Amino acid sequence: MACSLQKLVSLMETCQADTLRLLNIGAAARLANWQRYEDDQEALVRFVHDRLLLSRANGYRLELKSGLSLERIVAYECPEIFSAEDREIALATLSGIGL
């Protein structure tokens, strides 16, 4: 079953809450920009793609602290709506490769 916009939005809410709880308010505030796209799955996927390229260290830190990261969303929760490149970046980040 494909990842619905509703599921993606729910995952993004959890990711933002985990970022605030486990990392810091600055990272959570930057991530909060996803809310501009919560009614447009294609735009939200583009937002996540752009963030994957900018904030890899945060994704890895969230993984180490058992939080939900953008990378985990891309690689495991909704892989079918992201590109192969996005999934590769996400898996590398979750493994700590290239950080």
What's this model, at a glance?
The chain has 99 residues and is mostly helical. The chain has six helices and no strands.
Strand content: under 5%
Mean of residue pLDDT values: 94
Low-confidence stretches: none
**C-alpha Rg (nearest Å):** 12 Å
Give the H and E element order: HHHHHH
Give the termini distance in whole angstroms: 33 Å
Q: Helix amount, in percent?
A: 55-70%
Largest sheet properties: none
Q: What number of domains?
A: 1
| SS field, number of helical segments | 6
Q: Which structural class do you get from the secondary structure elements? A: mainly alpha
The best one-word shape is globular
Tell me how many strands there are.
0
Commentary on this structure:
This protein is mainly alpha-helical. The chain has one domain. It is 69% helix and 0% strand. The protein is built from six helices and no strands. It has helices at 5-22, 25-31, 41-54, 56-64, 70-77, 84-95.
List keywords for this structure.
6 helices; globular; single chain; 69% helix; mainly alpha; 99 residues; 0% strand
Furnish the topology, listing elements before pairings.
Layout: H1 5-22, H2 25-31, H3 41-54, H4 56-64, H5 70-77, H6 84-95
Helix pairs in contact: 1-2, 4-6, 5-6
